[in-house]
Amino acid sequence: MLTLEHQSAEDFRDTPYGRQLLSGFRCLLFAPGLEREFRRYLDRQARLAQCLGACLLLAVVGGYLYVERTLFAYSDPRWLLELTVLRLLQMVPGVAVLVITVLHSRVRVIANQLFPLLLVMVGAIAARIDIQYEVVQPEMAFRYGAGLLIVCSFFFLGITFWRALASAAAIILLDLIIASMILSSADMRVHWISVSYYVLLLVIGAVSRYVHEYSQREQFLVRKLLGWVAEHDAMSGLANRRSFDTALKQTLLQARRDRQPVALLLLDLDNFKAYNDNLGHPAGDALIRQFSEVLASFSRRPMDLAARVGGEEFALLLLNCDAQAAQVIAGQVLAALAERAIAHPASAQGPHVTASIGVAAWRHGQSAEQLYQAADAALYHAKQAGKNCYAAA
Ligand SMILES: Nc1nc2c(ncn2[C@@H]2O[C@H](COP(=O)(O)OP(=O)(O)OP(=O)(O)O)[C@@H](O)[C@H]2O)c(=O)[nH]1
């Protein structure tokens, strides 16, 4: 039986979120663009935990260092010196994470790639210290450090499953390498108990993390899909009137700040009622979808927006586009529609579907409503001028 999510995903298979929900993500990996978005989302969610984790690391390691300096000050000064260096090195990632937190988000994205490496570094040092304790003071070899970091790599810190698994496995591997270099073969046999404990923690952590991340990914996709539904017209896949109104205001703010031109094209299919009456409503819907495809192909730059603003009314918002360029684009839209040669059995303009376009270039000081009204008035003139043409405000 299909779940509700699957039915929604089926309806929205044209969106990256719907496609991903349908194709599944058992290996806990999305398509590249979506994967980057998910990692940013995970990082945002884990930011507080990362900071708290860094503070905890500094406090705990600092505490250990303080106690160890009083414990070994006279008994083993050489080991104390090495231990101090190791503890200070363990504290470096904590400081690094706190510094990264206050940095620009671009730096954070790069820094997050290094996050698992920092974790491995702290874990390997913890393993090294525990191994030394096994040699010099077996009663103090608690084996907490590396074990804790294996668990932490799977939880709280916003590291994805595969990276966490690689980090945890690297800590165990480094532990084995260091142990084989330091321990005698008799001690090594005892050390395998620590290794089996680490492996157990890895397995428990990996299984729990897999289940948790799977539902995190599902929630992420469903949430994104809901956002997409709120901003888009379900039939055409173009932006809906609500998100168009928001985008228009934002675009004008940006244009005012950067002193850039803005153009608005309002487009209306000609004789659409007659098309519906002759071929039926479903054919009318199919025409809306075909015209939307044509229009979407003219929304080429990141700030361009193609929207369905009414039944058979559309808008094309173009930032950094002046009046002249906008008229060229209006002509190209009409040509692209003519090229499709979609038969219209009841059009006074000819055998094929046509459209009319109103073009308005934004004037400084003009509000979003005034720009829209100007484009609407131009569209009215295009209709009056015999349709299948564009008119400029
Ligand atoms: N199939 C379909 N028809 C729609 C939809 N939304 C609006 N319409 C129809 O679009 C038609 C618009 O008719 P009019 O406003 O008279 O426009 P027109 O026939 O294109 O006339 P001109 O614009 O002057 O060329 C109406 O018959 C609406 O029922 C829709 O989502 N699907």
UniProtKB/TrEMBL annotation:
Catalyzed reactions: 2 GTP = 3',3'-c-di-GMP + 2 diphosphate
Entry EC no(s): 2.7.7.65
Transmembrane segment boundaries: 48-67, 79-103, 110-129, 141-161, 168-186, 192-211
Gene Ontology annotations of biological process type: cell adhesion involved in single-species biofilm formation; negative regulation of bacterial-type flagellum-dependent cell motility
A GO-annotated cellular component: plasma membrane
Cross-referenced InterPro entries: Diguanylate_Cyclase (IPR050469), GGDEF_dom (IPR000160), Nucleotide_cyclase (IPR029787), Rev_trsase/Diguanyl_cyclase (IPR043128)
Gene3D superfamilies for the chain: 3.30.70.270
Any matching Pfam family: GGDEF
Keyword Cell division: no
GO molecular function, one term: diguanylate cyclase activity
Co-factor(s): Mg(2+)
Domain GGDEF: start-end pairs: 260-393
Compartment(s) where it occurs, according to its Swiss-Prot or TrEMBL record: Cell inner membrane
Keyword entries, A-Z: Membrane, Transmembrane, Transmembrane helix
UniProt xrefs under NCBIfam families: GGDEF
This protein's name: diguanylate cyclase
Organism: Stutzerimonas marianensis
